[in-house]
Amino acid sequence: MLYWLTEFSDGGDIFNLFRYITFRAGMAFFTALIFGFIFGKPLINLLRRRQGKGQPIRNDGPQTHFAKAGTPTMGGLLILSALLFSTLLWARLDSPYVWIVLGVTFSFGLIGFADDYAKVSKQNTKGVSSKVRFLLGLIIAAVACTAAAWAHPEALAYRLAMPVFKDTLLNLGWFFIPFGMIVIVGSANAVNLTDGLDGLAIMPVMIAAGTLGVISYIVGNYNYTEYLGVHFVPGTGELLIFTAALFGGGLGFLWYNAPPAAVFMGDTGSLALGGALGAIAVCTKHEIVLAIVGGLFVVEALSVIIQVLYFKRTGRRVFLMAPIHHHFEKKGWAEPQIVIRFWIISLILGLIGLATLKLR
Questions:
Q1: For the residues 245-271, what does the mean pLDDT come to?
Q2: DSSP character at residue 17
Q3: Residue 4 pLDDT > 80, yes or no?
Q4: Which residues contact residue 15 at a Cβ distance below 8 angstroms, ignoring those fewer than 6 apart?
Q5: Helix/strand/coil (H/E/C) assignment for every residue in 222-277
């Protein structure tokens, strides 16, 4: 929104700063961070009053989780509010990619909000039917992928870019739409499965978003794409504003979500942020790199799939409990130990994802 101030610039004054994506990204970060600090406590108090008993705890979960009874959920509202306010304030609103990612983020956020509301109001861990959530997610992802394909340059539309083998473009045709749908819906649900311990999901999301933000900035800059040999996707640089706002809002939320958590992110946040990562990957043509950057989320999702399939086939379990972070809890690892080690893994994966920009 504030980008319009560049109309008053003659090229040598303070208004010229608003032309620079890096400046606006920095301001978006601080805006979202301050928003989180200002409104975090009032929102938590409001959620605590409205929800009463807070998020219901699974009876078959680790025993240590029963101490968290009464903690309010829907803390993702804080992240999404900071993200929306900051992005609309600092991003160029004529970028189709900004609107595509915002649309996916808040549509999945609405699904998560409905699920959280059902759980809290009924004091039941089931919430909205998984089939309904999955179907709605597919519809949202289909619209987003179609819009992204229309926004992409003709040479890239409906094509899959390969990391390392940078000259390779696979023409998926209309199959690009269902492929992108799998990326977005899979990312949303993988982050949702990861959100099971205080602070476990938010930091890996921030690391992945930061990595994708750098990638967005690079693929949206012709000079950088020429140097690195990656595909130029004009306009995606503005997504750095979104990811910077996500990072700032995430830090503001982590202040209250650090163990012991004063509020849980809930499906409101996890589905929305996971969907956002998938949408950014589709817009920037880095869907495969997302599987590297978000490798932790992939492992969490795979642990559930493996557990379910193996149990149905043999009646036995591969893990003590799925998702895999609960397996380590059952083995006696302390919650902060699991969280910090998973953060370290996420950081390593993020660096590997960035390295694919140079490798060929």
A1: 94
A2: G
A3: no
A4: 5, 6, 8, 9
A5: HHHHHHHCCCCCCCHHHHHHHHHHHHHHHHHHHHHHCCCCCCCCHHHHHHHHHHHH
The pLDDT tens digits for 187-206 are 999 999 999 899 999 999 99
Q: What is the pLDDT of residue 127?
A: 79
Q: What is the pLDDT of residue 338?
A: 96
Q: How far apart are CA 204 and CA 193, in angstroms?
A: 13
Residue 60 token pair: 């078959």
Beta strands in the chain (DSSP E): 159-161, 169-171
Query: How far, in whole angstroms, is CA 8 from its chain's centroid?
Result: 35
The structure tokens listed for 107 are 């549509």
Strand bridging mode 169-171 / 159-161? antiparallel
Spatial neighbors of 39 by CB under 8 A, at least 6 apart, are 78, 81, 82
Is the peptide bond between 323 and the residue preceding it cis, with omega within 30 degrees of 0? Answer: yes
CA dihedral 183, 117, 61, 275 (to 10 degrees): 10
- How confident is the model at residue 13, as a pLDDT? 66
Residue pair 80/109 in contact (Cβ under 8 Å)? The answer is: yes
How many Cα atoms are found within 13 Å in the side-chain-facing hemisphere of 20? Answer: 10
Question: Measured at the alpha carbon of residue 197, what is the angle toward residues 194 and 198, in degrees to the nearest 5?
Answer: 125
Domain ranges of the chain: 2-355
Tell the residue number behind the tokens 């996707």, with chain if given.
233
Of 83-87, 239-243, 316-320, the one with minimum mean pLDDT is 316-320
Cβ burial, residue 316 (10 Å; 0-12/13-18/19+): exposed
| Average pLDDT estimate for 294-314 | 96
Picking from 273, 302, 286, 284, the residue whose alpha carbon sits closest to that of residue 353 is: 286
Question: Could you tell me the two tokens for 234?
Answer: 């004009």
Q: Which residues pair with 170 in a beta bridge?
A: 160
User: Looking at 124-138, 222-236, 283-297, which range is the least confident one?
Assistant: 124-138
> What pLDDT score does 12 carry?
66
Q: Per-residue pLDDT tens for 38-78?
A: 999 999 999 999 887 766 666 655 666 656 677 899 999 99
What are the DSSP calls for 12-61, one per residue? SSGGGGGG-HHHHHHHHHHHHHHHHHHHHHHHHHHHHHHHTT-SPPPTTS
The two tokens of residue 23 are 């400046």
